[in-house]
Amino acid sequence: MRAVTQNAVHYLLLVLALLSASVQAERFSVLVYHGANPPYNYLEQGEQAGIFKDIFDRIGELTGHEFEFVLLSVARGHKSFESGEIDIEPGVNPSWRQSSRVPGIYSIDYAFSREVVLGRKEANPTRQPESFYGKVMGRVRGYRYGSFERHFGPGKIAVYDNISERELLVQLAHTRLDYIMIGDVTAAYYIANYPAYSGFREVYEISKLPVSMRIQPKRAELKREVDQALRHMLEQGEITQIYHKYGIIMPPL
């Protein structure tokens, strides 16, 4: 009987390769949005928890680095990344940051993000964005929605900005908004855990895009290490397991 399995050897070689490339462990800042989007990030007994926390805990084990979460508003977070105060913004598709002064460099893709329009229980699903014309739709200030935005403006969809998905859900429940734009993972979390939102339903898919880690351009070596760690986690099914822990079935890339 062999003393170690092939997977164990692969894992050991990966760890040795990562650690040899980084002789001294470093500490990096990771942007998360306060009051924003569980199950990606939230506070549990005053401590950070959620999908991003679990992913970076594992990346830390594989690289030897430490990752510090910085809670900011979306607008403030974007400015902090551009000024170089933030090293990593997780869960980003490059198309969302094309207009940034510092678009960043990106890790390999590790999951998908579906952005949807959410309505109350009486709302009807549609495939036509024009169905929303004349309605008021909530959006997190600073979020971008690509080609869907051509339907915003006078005579089209009236957009109302707020600071977080949580605030938008409250406004939708109190009929202050007709619809909201939100990630389907976050929507599923709130619908499953908050009775006030249990009747909410997805009525339109805005986009389905792969996401990666947005990294400061000066951190090219960190990108290489994160890529190696994410690739290992994908091969071992660890990303899938992390999402499943929060009740999310993530389709393969």
TrEMBL record:
The keyword Signal applies. Keywords: Signal. Residues 29-249 form the Solute-binding protein family 3/N-terminal domain. Residues 1-25 form the signal peptide. Gene3D superfamilies: Periplasmic binding protein-like II. SUPFAM superfamilies: Periplasmic binding protein-like II. Belongs to the bacterial solute-binding protein 3 family. PANTHER family: ABC TRANSPORTER SUBSTRATE-BINDING PROTEIN, MEMBRANE-BOUND LYTIC MUREIN TRANSGLYCOSYLASE F. This is Amino acid ABC transporter substrate-binding protein. It comes from Pseudoalteromonas rubra.
